[in-house]
Model the fold of this input.
Amino acid sequence: MGANVVLPPPGVTDVADGDTVVCYPYGVGHGHEGISLGLSIGGHRILLDCGLEDLAPLGDGPPPDAVFCSHAHLEHGRGLGLLRQRWPQVPIYATAATAALLMDKALAQSIKILPWRLPVELADNFTIELWPAGHLPGAASALLTYTHGTQRYRFFYTGDCFLSSTRLVEGFPLAALRGLNPDVLITDGSLGVARYPNRRQQENQLIEQLRSQLDQSRCVVFPVPLLGLGQELLMLWRSHYHFTGQPLTIWVDPALGRSCDAYLELLAQKPDAFPRNVQNFAQHQSIFWDDRINPTIKRLPQSAADWQHHEQQLQAPAVLLVHPATPIDLYCQRYRGAWSVFLPEQADLCAWQAELNRHGPTYDWFDSFKNATASGTVHLETYQLHSHCDGDGTTQLIHNLRPRHVVLVHGPLDHLSALANLDSLQSRYQVHIPLPGNPLSLFLDTRFKSPPPPREPTYEGTVSDSPNQISLQLPSAISNDARWQSFAETGIVEARWQGDNLVLRGVDPSELAAMTNRLAPDRAICDNCQFYQQRTCQQTRSPMFGRLVAPDGHCPEFIVRSIE
Ligand SMILES: [Zn+2]
Ligand SMILES: [Zn+2]
Done:
């Protein structure tokens, strides 16, 4: 740490004989330092994101030729203002939505706006093409292409990315990028190998948790970063059937209110930065502010004086959406009853932590909140509403893109290491975890052919029929195959025509159990439990909560699924 890394002077060619690229990890987001990666390709030097708090890690070398900002979160764009001051002539590229959400008018005006899905030349033989990354409106992944003679090298930087669509953002278009085969894929591994229920289930879970707190006449506080999570929550509460039409006031603090306004301005000017259903919704009502319908979303007064002027007290049930830097005591004095705080689960705290750091590293928001409430008794809940790929998502992304090198950044080191150690990645790719200040050389062998996609071989068999039955004769290559042995272990094989092919598959023990269970719907096993959804346990009280569970599992929290 602290070692200055200097980008090589202009004219020095890293891809000397077309086979090496150097990645300079100025900030890799293992902690709160933010993301900023230098990439030196064939004499072109580009800086991917600048989420550094100060520019010291960049050292005192020459400026990069170009800067790309993937999205407007602090840990990716915090240092852009300083960068602009230091090197006013260096172009900074981003999408129009990212420029708008950076909420720095002067900076936004100086940003060169890039289109979606169109290669733009940054320099001779060097192009950039942006792809939607999911995660946050405007968030972009960058495909960099460098051509050297007949050789073409491709680098894909995902930024923060999320495969699923959320309330306000369309997911990463994985199908369109399948088989891209970049030489290098730099991707976000912040959630490590953890598996999470799908986004809709996470939302429903959160709604249940919140409902139960509100039903106890509590005021509930959600501290959230300026961009992303807070707006997703508002849109969720606004459109979830559990909340629409319910008498509930949602208060938004002024700092978050301003970022909501930035979303609204973006929606007015660039509607296609948002999914179609959001555009439609917005034609009938403001997506964030409306005090004529329930739930009501209102702005919290700016100061105590404003509050007096309004003569308002907080009344439970109410939800407060606040930025962690907001002086919360001003608001908690307005309600003497019980409070609950909802914190995003540890794994997704990166963005939040960057904002909390403004108070200093030892500041404990929760403690200070507790001290500020009248009673001092505060109930704490944690929830999941992730907008980064989980372990399955990240590996799915990698297998679909099929790069040669995988560079994992962003997130605690142990999360990245767990990903890097997966057999399925180790056996196919060269996986790297760059450490801050240590340049990483990536060797690009032009003869390299990326591994073929996993594909099932085709075998010839014999079908013979008699008046009473049809039998299938399988070649020994199949019957001796260990995989066949295991998938035919139940002795039950399903055969199905698919076009001209007869597709055979073994019925595995858990499927067999599921079939049997369906015949005995009252048995106290997971498959018959109302909390068993998509093979995971959704019962918060269960020790198996959030895990992938076998259908014939059992736990004391079993509640039989009602028959629809
Ligand atoms: Zn982000
Ligand atoms: Zn991030």
Summary: The chain has 19 helices and 26 strands. The CA atoms of residues 217 and 317 lie 5 Å apart. The first helix runs from residue 74 to 77.
